[in-house]
Amino acid sequence: MLAHQFCELYNQHRQSLFAYLYSLVTDRVTAEDLLQETSLVMWREFDQFEPGTNFLAWARQVAFNRVRECRRRRQREGMVFSEEVVRQLADERAKMDRHLQDRWDQFQQCLTKLRDQDAELIDLYYANDATAEEVCQQTGRGIHAIRKAIKRIRRSLFECVGRNLPGRASS
User: Fold this and answer.
1) Chunked in runs of 10, what are the mean pLDDT values of the chain (171 residues)?
2) What's the CA gap between 133 and 147, in Å, rounded?
3) Cα–Cα distance measured from residue 132 to residue 23, given in angstroms and rounded to the nearest whole number
4) SS3 sequence, the chain?
5) Which of 38, 33, 30, 31 lies closest to 55 in space, CA to CA?
6) Cβ pair 93, 24 in contact under 8 A
7) Which residues contact 37 (CB under 8 A, 6 or more apart)?
8) Among 9, 43, 44, 51, which residue's Cβ finds the most Cβ atoms within 10 Å?
9) How far apart are CA 34 and CA 114, in angstroms?
10) Half-sphere exposure at residue 91, Cβ-oriented, CA atoms within 13 angstroms
11) What domains can be seen in the chain, in order of their start residue?
């Protein structure tokens, strides 16, 4: 049961955790290595995680400690940012993730406001990764009509997200 919980939470947050690490070390290979180290530590210490709390916040703390250890190793090699710079990068990344999550949540809300016909078109085009030509074949609509509709829907979604983000006055 514990293994299932860990795997489910880890898989749900793996990409965000990698992005966090990558933003701190700015080297893909190092970030991948740190993700592996972090995963092992998280697995060994999963019994210390409080169910119902923020798994990603806990994972970031474990990852941050791995970054600090990596920095210490690199410091001995003479290649390192100051502790303060790394902490600031970590804080900025956390703010960015919150902002991106807010935008994603708002995007999901805006999708629910689309007309059924527009939602179906977006689903065909993006969820199925179809080309405009393939959507034409599936819907019987012309290529120019499809491209124009996709452009209109994207603009509408963009405006909806921007209008409804937390901290912005609604129109």
Assistant:
1) 85 91 86 93 91 90 90 66 74 78 85 90 81 87 90 91 67 42
2) 9
3) 35
4) CHHHHHHHHHHHHHHHHHHHHHHHHCCHHHHHHHHHHHHHHHHHCHHHCCCCCCHHHHHHHHHHHHHHHHHHHHHHHCCCCCHHHHHHHHHHHHHHHHHHHHHHHHHHHHHHCCCHHHHHHHHHHHHCCCCHHHHHHHHCCCHHHHHHHHHHHHHHHHHHHHHHCCCCCCC
5) 38
6) yes
7) 66
8) 9
9) 41
10) 6
11) 1-100 (1.10.1740.10), 113-171 (no CATH)
Overall pTM > 0.90: no
* Residue among 116, 119, 121 at smallest CA distance from 134: 121
